[in-house]
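We emphasize that the prediction below concerns an isolated chain of 356 residues; any contacts that depend on oligomerization or on bound cofactors are therefore not represented. The input was used exactly as deposited, without trimming of termini.
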Amino acid sequence: MERLDSKRAVKKQFLTSKVLGSFEPAAKYSFEGSVNSIDYSDDGDFLVASADDDSVCLYDCHTAQLKAKVFCKRNGASVARFTHHSKAILCASRDAKGPNGSFSHNVHYLSLHDNRYLRSFKGHKKEVTQIAMHPSNDTFMTGGQDRTVRMWDLRDHKPHGLLEANDAPAISYDPQGLIMAISVSHNQMSLYDCRTYKKGPFATLLLKTEGPHSQLKYIKFTPDSNYFLASFTSGPHMLFDAFEGERKAVYKSDGLGQDSVAFEPSISPDGQFLISGTTKGLRAWEVTTGSLLQTSSWDKSSSSSGGRSSSKSSTSSSSSAVGAVSTLACWNPRTLMFASSVDRKLLFWLPKILPK
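Result of the prediction step, given as a token string:
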């Protein structure tokens, strides 16, 4: 296994549009099913990916080597999210049947170090679609197709709270862990104080969207907590003021928000740039202006070898498959690196041009 060039995975550097445009796939893994979630550990040293083949894979971000692979055949695997331990994750069931033959929709606390379930969190009546870990403690919240948000603690299998919504909710904590943001309808978002959420929201924002049937799917705060990104099942991504709800920027591109497909975006750790998949490939924008950046080279997002299994990697920058549908994108929180998915492929991206 060839190591990634450590000089390209630099930390705490200035990201520019020129550097961003030079990113290219440095390693690629293939799965037997579509990749359904990507997440980085708090320290940026590891990445976890789950797929529709019921696998959960842990990768070392410094070498792009597969460190652990777990098959969750009984419960399935989706929405894999790191806890504050780099070898422990939360993972939602997918098409899992309980002992009485009915489908269970649980969240599992899984140790990837020794392939062991530490705890299961039961309560949702339908599929769990989102998991959000609190930034600084062991509490987390989940949102599901049963139109509920449930509050949990890693140390207790019982939920500590429940909130209801009119749709499958989008959920997020602000980076300081003071505020919970929860969508309550297709274009409304409520803000709660994490310490007193049972008293109700301290603000409910009505979001100006583009499309009457557009459902709010993802919420992402900027690093300074002053704004949040809203992604919908149709139409472009949008940036809103976190205090007033005023729309600040719109992120448009061909292939974004079409056919009721929601793409999960990611904001760079410095808050400057946004990346997102589209039906035409991976795209990038300036956060403050909404300007679409020139990243045409990104369309060549898979190596000519076609990829290998999820236990081996291809580390070639030669490319093909222009304009492939990219559904997931995720920035590394500590290192100049991001990851994306293209159907059954997971790609690690590094810059060809190093920032000065």
